[in-house]
């Protein structure tokens, strides 16, 4: 972590907090990008050994930002700030911690680390305690679907749309989702999946920072874009 004990008069003197929002964020992206099950390339799939090493690192960063942390029954990592006596709906921020095989280090990780960095700035400047709305960072355990060929296990569980039948889907070795969860001390039952679900009434909005996986912003020399539409996939086996 970038030291902040030298005084806030030096930290973010220009109002941009580059020490955290740029320098430390880049260091953390590189650190997470080295946590891999592959040798010489980045591969971190659902419930793999590397995913648990990454979990420990992400939890430490969340705690550094002043967040209360836990891991749910689908392996999603949560870091939350809860204002006293707040009844407001939560702002959720996050992305996925799993990767494809031979992945880039920004895919997913950027959204997790940017969110943590933003909240850390609020903590070190004394503004986190002034928030009136709960804010929660979520590192979703599975988006890519590499291991079980079933995408969005993590976020679908949070949304409450993951069917119980998913527990019986197998990977190439014949291990089911249920067995993989139980091997790693998760309950892996329909009731446990129900515990992961967030009620829509408790969530006000969700924001995700993601790198553009295309040429448009780069060609226009724009540093940032706001997504208005997204591609959807339907896969059929005939």
Automatic annotation (TrEMBL):
Keywords (A to Z) from UniProt: Hydrolase, Metal-binding
One Pfam match: Peptidase_M28
One term of GO molecular function: hydrolase activity, acting on carbon-nitrogen (but not peptide) bonds, in linear amidines
All copies of domain Peptidase M28, residue ranges: 76-159
Name this protein carries in UniProt: Peptidase M28 domain-containing protein
The species this protein was found in: Aegilops tauschii subsp. strangulata
């Amino acid at each position: 972590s970038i030291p902040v004990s030298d005084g806030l008069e030096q930290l973010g003197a220009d109002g941009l907090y580059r020490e955290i929002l740029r320098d430390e964020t880049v260091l953390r992206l590189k650190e997470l990008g080295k946590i891999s099950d592959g040798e010489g390339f980045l591969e971190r799939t659902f419930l793999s050994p590397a995913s648990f090493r990454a979990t420990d690192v992400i939890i430490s960063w969340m705690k550094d930002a002043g967040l209360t942390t836990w891991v749910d029954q689908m392996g999603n990592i949560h870091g939350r700030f809860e204002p006293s006596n707040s009844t407001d709906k939560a702002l959720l921020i996050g992305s996925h911690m799993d990767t494809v095989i031979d992945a880039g280090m920004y895919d997913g990780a950027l959204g997790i680390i940017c969110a943590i960095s933003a909240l850390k700035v609020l903590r070190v400047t004394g503004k986190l305690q002034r928030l009136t709305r709960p804010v929660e960072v979520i590192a979703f355990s599975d988006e890519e679907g590499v291991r079980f060929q079933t995408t969005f296990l993590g976020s679908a569980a949070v949304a409450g749309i993951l069917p119980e039948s998913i527990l019986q889907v197998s990977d190439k070795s014949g291990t089911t989702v249920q067995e993989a969860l139980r091997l790693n001390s998760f309950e892996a039952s329909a009731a446990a999946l129900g515990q992961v679900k967030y009620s829509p009434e408790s969530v006000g909005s969700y924001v995700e920072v993601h790198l553009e996986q295309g040429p448009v912003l780069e060609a226009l020399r724009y540093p940032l874009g706001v997504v208005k539409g997204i591609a959807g996939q339907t896969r059929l086996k005939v």
